[in-house]
TrEMBL record:
Signal peptide: none
Highest taxon above the source species: Bacteria
Protein name as it appears in the record: DUF1772 domain-containing protein
Entry keywords, A to Z: Membrane, Transmembrane, Transmembrane helix
Residues that span the membrane, as ranges: 6-30, 51-74, 80-99, 125-144
Length: 145
């Protein structure tokens, strides 16, 4: 189970870094643009995310976390369950909040931008923090695993 925990924690930390980079770099830069340019750029970023290395990482972390969740429950490992829960939680937030907002932005464009960026930023911050819990839990709870 140690390898699965490590993979879930490392993958989740990579995702947390991507999400934090958006919060600290990408979204502030887009806010300096007009709604038309910002929304068009974000739509392009989202399209690339769904076809590039990000989606591979996202799906791999989600799959590893699901395997870890089953293993942790079978072994009654609280630490493993926390790591899995955090990794799966950030994936769930992405699928339930960020992706639908991305789809709506692609349909509605600049008219939706003010609402989009406020809502998307909130959920992005939440998923970044949740994703960051997995590696912290792995380090703190390593003896319990």
């Amino acid at each position: 189970m140690g390898v699965i925990v490590a993979l879930a924690a490392i993958g989740s930390s990579l995702l947390a870094g991507v999400y934090a980079s958006f919060a600290m770099i990408v979204m502030p830069a887009l806010r300096r643009r007009g709604p038309a340019e910002a929304s068009a750029t974000m739509v392009e970023i989202n399209a690339r995310a769904e076809r590039g290395p990000f989606i591979v990482l996202f799906l791999a972390v989600t799959a590893v976390a699901a395997v870890l969740a089953v293993s942790a429950l079978a072994r009654q490992s609280a630490g493993g369950a926390i790591v899995a829960g955090a990794a799966l939680g950030s994936s769930a937030i992405t699928v339930a909040a960020n992706v639908p907002a991305n789809r709506r932005l692609a349909r509605e464009g600049e008219a939706f931008w003010p609402t989009y960026q406020a809502r998307w930023n909130r959920w992005n911050a939440v998923r970044a923090v949740v994703a960051a819990v997995a590696p912290v839990a792995a380090v703190v709870g390593i003896r319990a695993l």
